[in-house]
Every structure is written in structure tokens, then in C-alpha cells.
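User: Fold this; C-alpha cells only.

Assistant: Input:
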Amino acid sequence: MIEGSCSLVRTNPVARQTLTRFRNPVALGALVLGLLLSAFPGAAQALDVAPWQRVLTAHVRGGGFDYAGLRADPERLADLNRFVEAVGAMDDGEPLASWLNAYNALVVHGIITRYPLDSVRDVDGFFNTVTHRIAGHSRTLDYVENQVIRPRFHDARIHVALNCGARSCPALSSRAFTTRTLDRDLDRLARAAVANRRHVRVVDGGLRVSEIFFWFSADFERDAGSVVGWLKRFGGEAITALPDDAPLSRLRYDWRLNAAR
């Protein structure tokens, strides 16, 4: 077992519960690696986010992304391609900030190489069939989200940081993620998402919420006991005043492209 991992397991309740189910040394080693990566996310960040930051600075606006502008901007297109190439060669042990940046950049890259589009759904298998070179392997976006990010970094706030290129997705952050600022950036994005009526509305003593809170309900329940409990952590007075068993209903998910207007 990796040095220092014993104390980590003792202080992590998820680890203690999961550890009892592992008898295979290989599986146990994978568990410990994931815990260490999530507990010490700043230890190994090597991916240079500067090219991605230049793309974001130039083309994130008004809660959307200016795909048409990027297509006409050769310098920032070169930056995007440079960053995507770096994602392909990055180490698999990169921390959460790098994986969030990688996912978001690959969504933008996937759209821009096929632009104009009305929706990512116009591309067959955009998330679960189309592959990208990521950390030395050919992987889909769904694989990155559900086989790397979610199981490795147990934090439901990732769902306000990952952007799927749709209007109903939480807005693409104008700041590239870094380990130094990640925690407060995730809090900021969570507060912004919960305050946005596109994602959360208080209606007749209950909540109408984005499909995201149904698709990934287990993540929010793990972190806060319930979806409502998670929303109350980041919501304003109207939400915090609701009972923990306030009813939830779904908002229609708008898959139209999140193009800046």
C-alpha cells in the first residue's frame, strides 16, 4: 500500500466503506490511487492551461461560447489545437482540474471541427462513440466523465464545471481550472448554477431542477444526503427555507447549442 494511504483511508468514510469490499490487491491499489489523487489534487498538475485560457478569454461571453468567432480566429484555433494535443499526451495521474479542462476543451474542439451545428445531438455518438486521444488512450467523453472523473474524484460539484455544449448545461467557465483555485471556483460555479432559473426554480413549495440533478442524483446524495440538501448548500434564502423533503420535478433539457448570442 502507498505510504500515507492508511491514514487517508482511516479518515475517509467512503474509503472505509469501500475498502471492506476489496480483496483483490490490484483493485485495492486502484482505490488507494484514486483516493490519493482526489485528496492531493495539486501534487501532479503538469498540463499547461495557458492556451486553453486564451481561448476562454477570447470567446466565452454572455453565458455561451462564440463558436463562429473562434472559427474566424486562427491564433485561438491554434491554441485550442495545441491544448487538445497536450491533453492527448498528459499523464493519467493529472488532478481533477486538468480533467475538467480536458473535457471542456474536447467538447469545444468536437463542436468547432463540425461547426455550424444546431446541437451536439446532431453528431451521432458525440459523447459515447466519438473518441479522442486523452492521456495516451483513445477515450470517449462519456468514458472521461463516468469512468475517470466521477469515480476518481468524489465531488458532485463537477456537474456544474463540465460543459456539454448545450444551453441547459451549466455555463462554461471563463477561467481555466487550476488546482490552486479549484475549490473556490467550484463553489462559485455551484452558486451560479443554483441561482440560474435555467437550472433551478422554486415553485409552489418545491423545486423544478435540471435533468442533471436526476441523472446524477447519487452523486448529490452522497455529498449532501439528498439533492435538496446539496442545493441548499449553494442556494439563496428561497431555497434554504425549503424542507429537506421538498418535492423535485424536472425542467426540460435544452440541447440547442450554447452559442453566444
